[in-house]
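Posting this for the archive.
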Amino acid sequence: MSKSIVLLTLLAAVWIYPPTVSAAENYREVCVENQNNNMGPDLCECMERIARWKLNDREYSFFYATAAKDSEKINKLQGQLSAQEKMNVITLIMKGPSDCAAELSKQGKKPQDQGGSQSVSGSAVGLSEATE
């Protein structure tokens, strides 16, 4: 009986406070497969790692939606994020690829960036125009 109560309490907590960032939101996959930005898996993995470290859950959801080009989610989140939160995402999109390339270079890995930072930066420019 007590196990059932604990289970129901946990289920209720998840229903009331659902996780913002779902396990399905794998930025690396979206970055490599959908962006066509030529960043390569190592740079995309680095970007995801930095995003999960630097961004809060709402910012990360916005970051992911931007990469996935999910305009419905982008529009929904734009109304929920503060200007600072939007700026945090834009800053990561603009600086992240070069920061990751430098990190990979230090590790002796050659980044596969072939102009990818330009296409990622292009997304941020569009994003910043939409937030103004």
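The chain has one domain: 26-131. The longest helix spans residues 83-106.
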